[in-house]
Design a protein that fits this description.
Layout lengths: L1 E3 L2 E3 L4 H26 L4 H127 L1 H19 L5 E6 L5 E6 L8 E5 L3 H9 L3 H26 L9 E4 L3 H10 L1 H9 L2 E4 L1 H22 L1 H54 L8 H4 L11
Parallel strand pairs: 5-6, 6-7
Antiparallel strand pairs: 1-2, 3-4, 4-5
């Protein structure tokens, strides 16, 4: 490498090789010229010319070298500028790439943070829903346990009530009180409180469980409660034919005894109805009598004692309530007729006053019509006066006109 000033020339550069070749050629020509000058003088002048030409060529080579040097400098500057632009471009692209990467990373971080936040919210909601469902399940479980405890308490209480009911039914007095309480409950729900009396005493000194105050006929009727439980239980517990016949006989005897007692005690001529009711507080006993002992039921009919159960007693009492209602309607019939007469008189007075009001309204209407007609006539006259024109009067329609001046003699 050859350095000329600030310019470095490579030995293998074609331009350098060309210039070097020319320089060597020039030197060779100079040497040849010097040698030729010594040989012949005649060749001096052409040699001078050739040297002059060589000088010109050398100047031209110097100028070309200067141009080459300027071109090389321009190429170097251009290359440096290109390198700087390339470096700036690369740096700008690297900055853009770095900014883009930063933006992508920031966006990814935001997305990850948002996804994490949403995941946390979903986890919270899931945990909250799970805890809420767990709490709801626990609450429902507690409620069901409370219901089970309450049902168990009710079962325990019911067991105690069944035992107490068995104790009540095992004693005749308490069993009678049980039937009376059931009868009182049915009667109080079916009839008004002033239509019956509990534990009413009759003229013969006998006390009835319930006395229904029905109008004549049929008159007051007695309901007495009876409960042949021992005979019925013996009938249900019979295991042989002999025990069955004996229990059936006991049940018939007990029912016949009750029928006879009610017929003798609570059917009083002139005081009560010609019949009475025997209340059985058990549907099973009632069904057993009507299914297997129809002869006993017919004996009750003959003695005018009708056997009723809680269901049939309620139906019978509803019929009695209808009878009481009809009787009270008949009692109030006079008051109703009086009220209807007063209502009819009030309607007549209203009709008379309505007629007078109609007459006054008709007269007022006629007066209003007359006023409207007069008003219409007055309006037409006012219109004619408003449109009146003195010039349109005919001579004969002018009428007498008073003179403005005094009379002449």
């Amino acid at each position: 490498m050859i350095r000329i000033g600030d310019t470095a020339l490579a030995l293998d550069d074609p331009v350098v090789l060309g210039v070097g070749g020319l320089v060597l050629l020039v030197l060779l020509l100079l040497i040849l010229a010097v040698r030729a000058a010594g040989r012949t003088a005649r060749m001096a002048e052409p040699l001078g010319q050739q040297i002059s030409l060589l000088g010109q060529h050398v100047q031209q080579l110097g100028a070309g070298q200067e141009q080459l040097r300027g071109g090389l400098q321009h190429v170097s500057e251009t290359q440096a500028s290109a390198q700087v632009q390339m470096i700036q471009t690369v740096e700008a692209r690297l900055s853009d790439v770095q900014q883009h990467m930063n933006d992508r990373l920031a966006d990814n971080m935001m997305r990850q943070n948002r996804a994490l936040t949403e995941m946390q919210e979903r986890m919270k909601e899931t945990l909250h829903g799970s805890s809420k469902q767990t709490a709801t399940s626990l609450t429902q479980l507690q409620e069901r346990l409370a219901t089970i405890d309450k049902a168990q308490d009710n079962i325990t209480k019911l067991s105690g009530d069944v035992l107490s009911l068995q104790d009540i039914l095992s004693n005749k007095q308490t069993r009678g009180a049980f039937g009376e309480i059931q009868l009182n409950d049915i009667v109080s729900k079916a009839l008004p409180s002033d239509s019956y009396a509990l534990q009413a005493t009759l003229s013969n000194g006998k006390r009835a469980d319930c006395l229904i105050r029905l109008p004549n006929p049929p008159g007051p009727i007695v309901i007495d409660s009876k409960f042949p439980l021992e005979a019925y239980e013996a009938l249900r517990a019979a295991g042989s034919e002999h025990e069955l016949r004996r229990a059936a006989g006991q049940l018939k005897t007990a029912v016949r005894t009750h029928i006879k007692a009610i017929s003798e005690r609570y059917i009083i001529e002139g005081e009560t109805a010609d019949g009475a009711l025997m209340f059985l507080p058990s549907e099973a006993v009632y069904a057993e009598l009507h299914a297997n002992f129809p002869d006993v039921v017919r004996e009750g009919f003959a003695a005018r004692v009708w056997i009723v159960s809680p269901t049939t007693c309620m139906a019978t009492l509803n019929t009695m309530r209808a009878i009481l209602k009809d009787a009270r309607m008949r009692e109030q019939a006079g008051a109703i007729r009086k009220a209807l007469k007063q209502l009819h008189r009030d309607v007549e007075i209203i009709g008379a006053r309505a007629g007078k009001l109609e007459t006054h309204l008709r007269q007022a209407g006629d007066d209003v019509s007359g006023i409207l007609v007069a008003s219409e006539r007055a309006g037409k006259r006012a219109d004619r006066l408003d449109n009146f024109d003195f010039e349109e009067l005919a001579p004969e329609e002018a009428g007498p006109v008073a003179a403005l001046g005094g009379a002449k003699n």
